[in-house]
Each structure stands twice: as structure tokens, then as C-alpha cells.
Design a protein that fits this description.
GO terms for molecular function: oxidoreductase activity. Belongs to the short-chain dehydrogenases/reductases (SDR) family. This protein has 237 residues and is α/β, with parallel strands linked by helices. It is 38% helix and 15% strand. The chain has a seven-stranded parallel sheet with strand order 3-2-1-4-5-6-7, sandwiched between helices. β4 (73-76), α3 and β5 (124-129) form a beta-alpha-beta unit. α3 (92-118) packs parallel to α4 (142-162). The longest helix is centred in the middle third of the chain and has 27 residues, at 92-118.
Length: 237
């Protein structure tokens, strides 16, 4: 699905990858771009409409979906991450609850709110921002990884369910992206602009998944191996 002349709604779009999605959508000729965010004060991007939404607050989601009922491309981008001592940390349950509320249940809530209108459109799409962490063991990100694994599974179920409704569902898998979210982590990072270009290109090509950096591509390629990357990660990852 080409986004030219379409209406795009992005969650978590006040900065980082979400804002990159909004800007690229404008460059590609989207008719309207809604930037969903918890606080709209001070947001000023030409041609981009700020909309208040908190993916953990059902009332704000319902209001946003009603305001942006003309949406044809929904991008579930909002997410949070945090480091932890490991999967046996005393904080793992509490942190997992936080991660799931935004990274998994947030995707579910927003998708449920927007889907009735999306399914009425002749062309519609949903992009879910996922992560290579679903295949990469990183104990310091255990709760985040679990939440993204759940979101990946939900994306796969959603894609199959909506196939006959004419709604394209695209899963974006990527490693670390150079945004505020990863500012304290010293690892190679993908450019947000490059990630969104690849994602919109994949959407236009009718794809169901996109691996938006080399590390994620390599990791995905190990999944059928006898020793897949989630058991022994490839060197350099």
C-alpha cells in the first residue's frame, strides 16, 4: 500500500522514530498525518496534526480514534524500554507489567479502537513497530524483550485475521535505533530516517515483514538453523 494521498496516524510521534514516520509520510504525499502523543503542548511541525493519546488510557484512545476516523494507515510505534539486572531481578515482575501495559496492551487497545474504521476503507494498513530483541538474548532487557515478543505474536495473529478484511499488517523488526530511547546505550544504531524509508517501501511492496537493519536481517536468517540466534547469537550482535 502506497501512503500517497492516505491518512496516517502514528502513536508516540512527538519525537524519535514516531516523528521520523510522520515527517516521511508528509514527504511521500500523505493527505493527512496525525501525530499521537501524551502531551501536545509545544509540538509544532508543519503539516502534522498533534493528537493527544496515551496508549495506556482507554478513554484517550477512544477519543483519538473518533477524531482521526479518516485514518487509513495506523502505525503502532509508542513504546518504552528500561534496563534491568537480569531475568531473575526482584524488579522483573513490576517492570514487566509496565512494559506490557505500553508495548503489548497499548498495541492491542489502539488497534481495537481504530480497526472498525480501517476495515471499512477500500485500502488500509497497520504497521507495528517490533524489535530484533524477540530473537536476541539480552538479559538486561528481559521484560522489554518479553513485551515485544508478545507484540510480535499478536501482529502475526492480527495479520491472519485481517487478511480477508483488506487490511495489510506489516511488522517492523529492527535493532537499536538512534533515538532518545537508546541514548544511554553504547551500541551501533540504525538511523530513524533510514528505518522509516525501508518500512514505507516494504508497505508499498505489499510485504508482511521488514527487517530494517543488517543485524536484524542476519538474526532472522538463523531461525531455521540447528543453533538459532536466540540460543547462540551471531558474532557482533
Amino acid at each position: 500500500m502506497d501512503i500517497k494521498n492516505e491518512t496516517v496516524f502514528i502513536t508516540g510521534a512527538n519525537r524519535g522514530l514516531g516523528l521520523a514516520f510522520a515527517r516521511e509520510a508528509r514527504l511521500r504525499g500523505a493527505a493527512r498525518v496525525y501525530a499521537g502523543m501524551r502531551k501536545t503542548d509545544g509540538f509544532n511541525e508543519p503539516g502534522i496534526i498533534p493528537v493527544k493519546i496515551d496508549v495506556t488510557d482507554p478513554a484517550s484512545i477512544t477519543a483519538a480514534a473518533a477524531l482521526a476516523a479518516d485514518t487509513t494507515v495506523l502505525i503502532n510505534n509508542a513504546g518504552i524500554a528500561a534496563l534491568i539486572d537480569g531475568p531473575l531481578s526482584a524488579e522483573v515482575a513490576a517492570q514487566s507489567a509496565r512494559m506490557f501495559d505500553t508495548n503489548y496492551y497499548g498495541v492491542v487497545r489502539v488497534t481495537q479502537a481504530f480497526e472498525p474504521n480501517l476495515s471499512k476503507k477500500p485500502n488500509a494498513a497497520i504497521i507495528n513497530v517490533l524489535s530484533d530483541i524477540v530473537w536476541l538474548p539480552r538479559p538486561i532487557l528481559a521484560p522489554y524483550a518479553a513485551s515485544k515478543a508478545a507484540a510480535w505474536s499478536y501482529t502475526n495473529q492480527l495479520r491472519f485475521h485481517l487478511r480477508d478484511h483488506g487490511v495489510q499488517v506489516l511488522g517492523l523488526h529492527v535493532g537499536f535505533v538512534d533515538t532518545d530511547l537508546t541514548s544511554g546505550i553504547d551500541v551501533p544504531k540504525a538511523s530513524p530516517a533510514d528505518v522509516v524509508r525501508q518500512t514505507f517501501d516494504a508497505l508499498a511492496a505489499g510485504k508482511s515483514e521488514v527487517m530494517a537493519d543488517q543485524g536484524t536481517t542476519v538474526l532472522k536468517g538463523t531461525l531455521a538453523a540447528e543453533e538459532p540466534g536466540y540460543i547462540t547469537p551471531p558474532q557482533g550482535l
